[in-house]
Task: inverse folding
C-alpha cells in the first residue's frame, strides 16, 4: 500500500567496491549498518543557467552540473564480539580513507592512508524507493561524551544512480552482534601525556570533506589529504599536579580506551598530538575543566590509530 511513510523507516547498507564506481550490490542480510540519524540529499550539484540575450520575462533555463548524492549518519562504536574480527562499521572506516589491518584472534586496526583509498557502494533503502550511491567516500568525526554513546558521524558523497522503486516494506536486515556501551567511568579510560584525566568530552575530526570531481572522461569522489584535529574537556588537576598550560604547543601521546572485555574494546591512540595553544576554562558539573584543542600531527605510526580488540 502506498504511503505516507515515516522518515525513520530506512535502511543503510554498504559494501567495499572491487572497482571504483561499479555497483557491488550490498544486501540487507550481509551488509546492513546499524545507523542513527540517517540523512540523504538525493540530488546535489551546481546549477548552471542558460541566460539568453533576448527580450522577454521569465527565468532562464538551467541544468545541474556534477550531479551526485550526499548524506550523513551516526554509528555507535563498539567491538565485533570477538578479538580480531572486523566490526560491521569497518566498511565505513575504509570508505573514509582508513586502511584496515586484521590480525586474527588479536585485533583490527584502522589508520589513515594517503594512497589506495577505497570506496563503497552504499544503498539508502526507504519504503517504496531505493537510492543507490556508488564510489562513495566520506569524512569521519568521532565524539565521546560522558553519559552517551561513543559516536562516529560520517558525511558522505557518492555518484548518483537514478532512484529505483522498492517494496512498501523494508528488507529484513541482519545486524552484526554488538554491545554498545555508554561512555562512563566504568567503561572508558582517557589519558593525555600519560596523565589519567577526568574527561567529560573528546572529539576527533578527520578534517577532509569528500570532493566531487566531474571531468570529461573521469568522474568520482576524492578525499583530499586530511588535517585531523579535535578537542577534549578534562577536569583541571591544578598546575602543581599537571601543568597542561606549560605543554601548550608540544606533542604528547593520547589514549582513549572504550570497553573492558575482549571482543568489545575500541581504542583510539595517537603518538604526536599537539596541544593548544588556546587552552581555556569551562565549568562542567560545577567543577573547573580545561578545554584543550588537539592537532593530530604526522608520526611514523600515523596521526591516529583506531583499534578494535
Result:
Amino acid at each position: 500500500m502506498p504511503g505516507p511513510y515515516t522518515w525513520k523507516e530506512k535502511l543503510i547498507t554498504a559494501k567495499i567496491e572491487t572497482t571504483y564506481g561499479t555497483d557491488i550490490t550490498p544486501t540487507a542480510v550481509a551488509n546492513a549498518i546499524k545507523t542513527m540519524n540517517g540523512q540523504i540529499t538525493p540530488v546535489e550539484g551546481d546549477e548552471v543557467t542558460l541566460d539568453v540575450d533576448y527580450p522577454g520575462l521569465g527565468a532562464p533555463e538551467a541544468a545541474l552540473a556534477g550531479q551526485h548524492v550526499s548524506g550523513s549518519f551516526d554509528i555507535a562504536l563498539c567491538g565485533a564480539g570477538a578479538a580480531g574480527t572486523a566490526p560491521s562499521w569497518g566498511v565505513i572506516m575504509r570508505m573514509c580513507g582508513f586502511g584496515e589491518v586484521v590480525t586474527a584472534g588479536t585485533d583490527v586496526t584502522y589508520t589513515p592512508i594517503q594512497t589506495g583509498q577505497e570506496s563503497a557502494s552504499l544503498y539508502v533503502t526507504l519504503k517504496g524507493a531505493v537510492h543507490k550511491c556508488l564510489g562513495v567516500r566520506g569524512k569521519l568525526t568521532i565524539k565521546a561524551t560522558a553519559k552517551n554513546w561513543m559516536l562516529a558521524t560520517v558525511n558522505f558523497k557518492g555518484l548518483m544512480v537514478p532512484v529505483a522503486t522498492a517494496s512498501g516494506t523494508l528488507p529484513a536486515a541482519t545486524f552484526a552482534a554488538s554491545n554498545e556501551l555508554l561512555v562512563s567511568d566504568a567503561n572508558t579510560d582517557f589519558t593525555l601525556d600519560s596523565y589519567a584525566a577526568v574527561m567529560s568530552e573528546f572529539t576527533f575530526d578527520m578534517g577532509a570533506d569528500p570532493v566531487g570531481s566531474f571531468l570529461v572522461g573521469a568522474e568520482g569522489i576524492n578525499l583530499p589529504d586530511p588535517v585531523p584535529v579535535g578537542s577534549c574537556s578534562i577536569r583541571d588537576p591544578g598546575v602543581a599536579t599537571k601543568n597542561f598550560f606549560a605543554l601548550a604547543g608540544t606533542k604528547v601521546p593520547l589514549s582513549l580506551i572504550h570497553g573492558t572485555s575482549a571482543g568489545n574494546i575500541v581504542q583510539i591512540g595517537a603518538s604526536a598530538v599537539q596541544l593548544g595553544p588556546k587552552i581555556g576554562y569551562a565549568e562542567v558539573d560545577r567543577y573547573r575543566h580545561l578545554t584543550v584543542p588537539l592537532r593530530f600531527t604526522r608520526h611514523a605510526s600515523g596521526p591516529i590509530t583506531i583499534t578494535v580488540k
